[in-house]
Every structure is written in C-alpha cells, then in structure tokens.
Q: What sequence folds into this?
C-alpha cells in the first residue's frame, strides 16, 4: 500500500515506481473518450438534473452511430445496409423515409406528394423532422443506426447535433468530383457547394472511401473502418520497442527517437553493463547471481527470461519512464519475454522490427572499433589509415564468433516475435531497401505519430 492513498505508489522511496497499470487502464477502457462523449452530450442537452442524466447516460449500452454520405453517383444506402447487417444496427435511409411518409394520409405525406409532383425538392425542415422522428424511436436507441441520404448540408448536420444525435463516424464515399455525366450534373453541383460545410461539421470523425472500388471491396473497406479504433485526443504515453539483428541500427534509431520526443531510452545492453558494473538494485544483483550460474560473462543469453524481465521492468517502472514514455531496444528477444513484458503491465504501443541480411550484419559489426578516448564506436572506414586507426580497439562482443551467435539467437526467434506483435502496432522495416539512416528514421517517426488506423485517412 502506498503512503499516498492505497494505489501502490510510495512517494518516499527512490526511485519512485509508478504502476504502469494506471495509464494502461485509462487507454484500454477508453476512459478519456468516455468522459469526452459524456461532456459533449451534457452540454448539448443541458438537462435540469445533470447527475441523474449522467448516470443514465453511462448506463446506456454503447451502440453504433454512423452516417454514410457521398456524392450523388454513389450508392450510400447499399454500404449502410451492409454495415447495419454486420453490426446489428438499424439502417435508416432518408429517401426511404420520405417514400414511406408520402404514402401516409398526413399533412407531411400530402406535402411530399405535392412537391414531388411539381418537381421541387423537399425543404430541409421537413426532412429534418422526419429523420429525427425515426432516429429518436426506441429500437434505434437500443440498437444504434447507420444513416444514409442525410444530412446533405451543414444546417441539416447542425440540426442533428442540436437534437443530441452525435455520430461516432462519418463515412464519405466519393469518386473524382470533376467527373460525372449530364444526368447527375445538377445534383453534383449542389453536392459540391454543400460538401465543405458537411466536412467542416464532421471533420474530426470523417473518413473517406474510394467509390471506384468494386462493390464487395467497398463493403469490406467500409467495415474495416468501422472496426478500427478511432483516433482519440486523450493523452497517451509512448511505449516503443525496436527489435532487429546486430548491425541493423536499432540503438541508433532508438536514441534518435528518444531525443526527439524526450522519451527514456532503455537499452538492454546498457542495463546489462550497469548490472555488471556493480549496481546495487535487487534486479541487478539477481542478474549477476543468475549469470554466475550459467557460466559468467559472455553467457548473458542463457540467463532466465524472468531475471532479464526484472532488469528491464525495474527501469520501465521508474517515474520518468511512466510519465515521459520509453523506447526499449534489445528486449524482448523471444515470444515468452514479450508475453511476460505485457503481463507485467508494460505493453508497447508501437513495435518496429528492422531487417538486415546476415552477411551485411557481419560486415557492419565486425568492422566496428572503439575509440580509446571517447569510447565511441566507429567503423574502420571512418578513420584514416595510420596511427589513429591503429589505436582503435575491438569490442569482444563484436568478434565474428560472438556476432554469429547473436545473429543466430535473433534469427531463431524473429518470426515468433513478429507473429506475437502482428497487427497495426507493428511496423516492419527493411533497412537495405529504405536506405540511409535518416530515411529509416523518417519511416519510424511517421508510423509513431500516425494514429493506429491503417485502413482510413482523414479528409482535409
């Protein structure tokens, strides 16, 4: 129990260790998104009793609230029906609602018939009333909706919002707006005029799909977008893992990433060096004892997974790592270590695997030397021939036998690690194809700052 309130955090101990489960819980349960949605709806509806209203709001099941819009030459209803069938929501099509209303013996029905007979469009106020009446019925409230054919303008979108209809996703299905036949030219011109207002109304949730895709592919892509976790404005703490064979430049890229975003750079090789240099932490002592049991220095790879995990976890759970985020290089080395890392609460938010041919790795690492004064590692080619090159030292870890052993160790588990981290959080990098160190970093940086939404993009 922590001295600051039963949360497992003792502020009197140094280094302070913050349970990583705090931030993970907020992210996994989308607490920030829940509160954001709560506050938006509260401000829109402005109930007399906010407390009771919030209790009812939080008790309501989370159901799909999706709008499918697009240019006049796209079948948005077909896509909406497909999504509704898969999600269990109710497909609501504005044109179908107008047809149903026109068949009824009511003032609305007679108005729709008259306007259609005269070849006139329906006024927005009439469409808003009919659509809202359907969306506010009990079956829609319980199952959610996929709305198509409405809204077609910013005033209609605002009318939905002011009535408390806040969609979580707006799918915009379009082809090139500069093309289209004469039959749809007038409708297309109207759509082009209204489109900027619609995009502005739903700019934070709008996703674009290509209408030229075959129907089945379009339905598949639309469903992928629906299933993809939306971008959130919630603060997130980066937790990055970079893996690769010796010579791939993992440490270099990790250090650059840490420097740019003020992350804590956690290097497995540095942690081992620190433990061997006499660190008094419990994890370091346990590592030294375990290393002695497997034959001493040079057999670090034989140390048990749980001991290696303690060494890493001790650093990842310090205050700076938990508040700034971290980038971990050289660990995990197998699927078991990856599983243990996640179970301990340190689940990465991004994973990069760097690929390099074995022969190229051997060439790069074995040509490295250590400068006797600065301690910096240099390639032999970087230093002119002569007395200065002769003074360079070779790190025992970079001998051909040791490099071959490290390569074998990484290769044995590379595929299982890739399978363990498969999904949108994984980014595979072929260093030889990408090219320079700067180009590799740009790829890593671009993936890091992009939300995990690999099947859609935001319309600007």
A:
């Amino acid at each position: 129990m922590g001295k600051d309130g039963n949360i497992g955090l003792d502020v009197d101990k140094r280094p302070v260790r913050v349970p990583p489960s705090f931030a993970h819980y907020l992210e996994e349960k989308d607490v920030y998104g829940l509160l954001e949605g709560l506050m938006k709806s509260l401000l829109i509806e402005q109930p007399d009793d906010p407390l009771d209203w919030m209790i009812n709001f939080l008790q309501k099941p989370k159901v799909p609230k999706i709008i499918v819009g697009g240019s006049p030459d796209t079948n948005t209803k077909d896509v909406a029906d497909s999504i509704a069938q898969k999600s269990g929501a109710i497909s609501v099509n504005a044109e179908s609602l107008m047809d149903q209303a026109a068949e009824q013996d009511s003032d609305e029905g007679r108005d729709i018939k008259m306007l259609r007979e005269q070849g006139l469009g329906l006024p927005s106020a009439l469409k808003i009333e009919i659509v809202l009446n359907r969306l506010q019925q009990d079956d829609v409230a319980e199952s959610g909706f996929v709305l198509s054919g409405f809204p077609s303008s910013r005033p209609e979108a605002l009318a939905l919002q002011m009535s408390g209809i806040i969609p979580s996703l707006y799918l915009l299905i379009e082809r090139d707006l500069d093309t289209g036949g004469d039959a749809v030219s007038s409708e297309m011109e109207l759509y082009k005029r209204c489109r900027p207002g619609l995009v502005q109304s739903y700019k934070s949730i709008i996703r674009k799909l290509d209408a030229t895709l075959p129907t089945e592919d379009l339905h598949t892509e639309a469903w992928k977008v629906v299933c993809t976790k939306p971008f959130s404005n919630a603060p997130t703490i980066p937790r990055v893992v970079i893996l690769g064979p010796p010579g791939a430049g993992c440490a270099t890229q990790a250090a650059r990433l840490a420097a740019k975003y003020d992350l804590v750079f956690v290097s497995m090789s540095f942690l081992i060096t620190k433990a061997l240099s006499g660190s008094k932490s419990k994890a370091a002592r346990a590592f030294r004892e375990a290393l002695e049991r497997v034959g001493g220095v040079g057999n670090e790879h034989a140390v048990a997974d749980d001991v290696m995990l303690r060494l890493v976890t001790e650093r990842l759970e310090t205050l700076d790592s938990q508040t700034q985020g971290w980038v971990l290089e050289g660990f995990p080395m197998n699927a078991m270590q990856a599983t243990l890392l996640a179970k301990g609460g340190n689940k990465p938010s991004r994973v990069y695997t760097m690929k390099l041919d074995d022969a190229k790795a051997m060439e790069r690492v074995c040509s490295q030397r250590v400068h006797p004064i600065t301690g910096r590692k240099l390639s032999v080619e970087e230093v002119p021939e002569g007395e200065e090159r002769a003074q360079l030292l070779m790190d025992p870890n970079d001998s051909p036998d040791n490099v071959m052993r490290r390569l074998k160790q990484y290769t044995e588990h590379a595929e299982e690690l890739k399978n363990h981290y498969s999904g949108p959080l994984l980014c595979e990098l072929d260093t030889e194809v990408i090219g320079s160190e700067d180009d590799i970093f740009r790829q890593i940086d671009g993936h890091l700052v992009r939300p995990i939404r690999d099947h859609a993009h935001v319309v600007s």
Q: What stands out?
A: The CA atoms of residues 240 and 327 lie 4 Å apart. Residues 400-420 form the longest helix (21 residues).
